[in-house]
Amino acid sequence: TQKYFWVKESTSLELTKKIQKSLLTLLKNGGTFKEWKDNYDANFKSMGLESTGSYTETIYRTNLQSGYAAGRYQQQDSQKELFPYWQYVSIIDDVTTDICSELNGKTYRANDAIWNTIYPPNHYNERSSVIALNNEDVAEMNISVNDVDELKQTETYKNFKGTTFSGNPVNTFEKDMKNNIDNKKEQIGTYQKLLEEYTEVQ
User: Fold this and answer.
1) What's the angle, vertex CA 111, arms to CA 109 and CA 115, rounded to 5?
2) 184: helix, strand or coil
């Protein structure tokens, strides 16, 4: 359950890949959660997920958002010379997490290594985003660049850094995807071995 694609109740590698592909297609072409879910109800039923709507929605939101964040990061990263500052923007209400409250409004240089840790999504159902700013934006809005070392001293940051969400959505994507697939293969191998042992006993 990290930033990469994961369907924890699916032990089928092919099914997991199929659902992943459907989400990537939706991300590329656009669509709604209902359209995606209706199209894959049969797959969810095979995993016993037909009655767990909230869990299904979490799969959709978390994994689709991670793909979107990776694309957004790449786009912003390629324009750092034009927009040398990034600002973290959160929605503040009763369900805002500690890390998003801490980071809301914080502005750091786009090339600062801190973004390899705090770039969202930083938790499930993330609503925060990062906006790119140029020199004129910073001057006109009288924005001060925040102190990264000061952030690193906060308990909120220290607690967050140890979570599975800490990281960069692009740098960790391929590595985490491979780990996810290897994990699925291991699960399938374990079940296959148990089945073979059970068959021999019978």
Assistant:
1) 80
2) helix
Distance between CA 52 and CA 2 in Å, rounded?
A: 20
* Helix (H) / strand (E) containing 75: helix 53-77
Q: Is 138 exposed, middle or buried (0-12, 13-18, 19+ CB in 10 A)?
A: middle
Across-strand partners of 135? none
pTM above 0.85, yes or no: no
33-64 in b/e form (b: 16+ CB < 10 A) is eeebbeebeebbeebebeeeeeebeebbebbb
pLDDT in tens, 138-154: 999 999 999 999 999 99
Q: What is the pLDDT of residues 152-195, one digit of tens each?
A: 999 999 999 988 888 877 765 555 555 556 665 666 666 566 65
Return the half-sphere exposure (C-beta side, CA atoms, 13 A cut-off) of residue 159: 9
